[in-house]
From TrEMBL:
This is E3 ubiquitin ligase complex SCF subunit. The lineage of its organism: Eukaryota, Fungi, Dikarya, Ascomycota, Saccharomycotina. Essential component of the SCF (SKP1-CUL1-F-box protein) E3 ubiquitin ligase complexes, which mediate the ubiquitination and subsequent proteasomal degradation of target proteins. SUPFAM superfamilies: POZ domain (SSF54695), Skp1 dimerisation domain-like (SSF81382). Keywords: Ubl conjugation pathway. The keyword Metal-binding does not apply. Pathway: Protein modification; protein ubiquitination.
Amino acid sequence: MSKENQNVVLVSVEGERFVVDRKIAERSLLLKNYLQDLNSGDLHDDNDADDDEDDEEDGDDEIVMPVPNVRSSVLQKVIEWAVHHKDSNFPDEDDDDSRKAAPVDPWDREFLKVDQEMLYEIILAANYLNIKPLLDAGCKVVAEMIRGRTPEEIRRTFNIVNDFTPEEEAAIRRENEWAEDR
């Protein structure tokens, strides 16, 4: 089987296995770089040559890759996103301005309508796996949850405890009066 059509087995922190096409796995720059290193021989030592031949004879055309920082439910969501976007072209990853200016794709917006814990875990997984378009979409959704809200509304939304005394809060408001929209 050609390297491009190879299956990749992603193993979550709980040990659950997810078989995906290599193209899907390569939406993650972390996994893509690992696979490229694996193919170039950088991750094999000379003693592995015989093992590789045996694997080919057995028909073993899968590469197993642990994803130790990602729970199964989150990895499943990330894979769902990658499958949907397998042929998508995203703004150049090095061009921060175009990435920041790009609106959240309607499908991504609907996909990210999950509970806050799952949203945060998807963002963390996208960061760990180096999937910038998913990371950007997740962060934009969180930013939209904050935009136009008062500090108290933000605290309620994200279950943040206000650790300022009323006196400290009043002092901070006085110091930052100039920044208030009036």
